[in-house]
Amino acid sequence: MMEKFYPVLPDADWIERLVPLGIKQVQLRFKSENPQDIGQQIARAAKVCRDHNVQLIVNDHWQLAIEAGCDFIHLGQDDMALADFDRIRAAGLRYGLSTHDRKELACALALKPAYVALGPVYETRLKKMKWRPQGLQKLAHWRELAKDTPLVAIGGLTVERLPGLWKAGADCAAVVTDLVTAPDPVARTKEWVQACR
């Protein structure tokens, strides 16, 4: 089952800072070419998540997630093409998959993911994307197409936009920019936790 609030954070420092505030699941999206650095980040994030009974979702680095004993990963489209799903399933990992168009959604659903993500729902400043904002109408369409698979919305989300997300059928809000660029990330995280109770 997906929680309604799903922070996507850039490193273990952020996870150590925000997880104790009442978050129930979090994604580590650590970008590096150094497997040792990635492994250390995953280990730190996994420890704090275990200590607080929080679900850690590791972005992209599925082999290192398996080595670290993690049980949930998120894969973007580029990573899906390179991933060994037989090995991922054999290791007992659940996985969420990014989607942007109907072809990607069909491919993702065929892999029976724990959730599918659609984004960016709104304009996002943090990450350059080839996709224009998808909007709430497309989110509602994804809800129909995804059927029973949980639907995660991502991209340009704010607490103030939550009512529209829920009305369109999103199960969960994945939040990046609104947290990591907030003047007070701790206070903003508490707002999200409260709004998604």
Question: Can you give me a brief rundown of this structure?
Answer:
The protein has helices at 12-18, 35-51, 62-67, 77-82, 85-90, 102-110, 135-146, 162-168, 177-180, 185-195, and strands spanning 5-9, 25-28, 55-59, 72-75, 94-99, 115-118, 151-154, 172-175. Helices cover 43% and strands 18% of the residues.
Q: What would you note in describing this structure?
A:
This protein has 10 helices and 8 strands. It is globular and about 40 Å long. Helix 3 (62-67) links the parallel strand 3 and strand 4 (72-75). With 197 residues, the protein is an alpha/beta fold.
- What summary fits the major beta sheet? 8 strands, parallel, barrel
Overall average residue pLDDT: 95
Based on CA inertia axes, which overall geometry fits? globular
Helix and strand sequence:
EHEHEHEHHEHEHEHEHH
Helix/strand structural class: alpha/beta
- Strand coverage percent: 15-25%
Instruction: Work out the helicity level.
Output: 40-55%
Distance between the termini: 14 Å
Structure keywords:
single chain, 197 residues, alpha/beta, 8-stranded parallel barrel
Q: Which SSEs are present, and which pair or pack?
A:
Layout: E1 5-9, H1 12-18, E2 25-28, H2 35-51, E3 55-59, H3 62-67, E4 72-75, H4 77-82, H5 85-90, E5 94-99, H6 102-110, E6 115-118, H7 135-146, E7 151-154, H8 162-168, E8 172-175, H9 177-180, H10 185-195
Parallel strand pairs: 1-2, 1-8, 2-3, 3-4, 4-5, 5-6, 6-7, 7-8
Helix pairs in contact: 1-2, 7-8
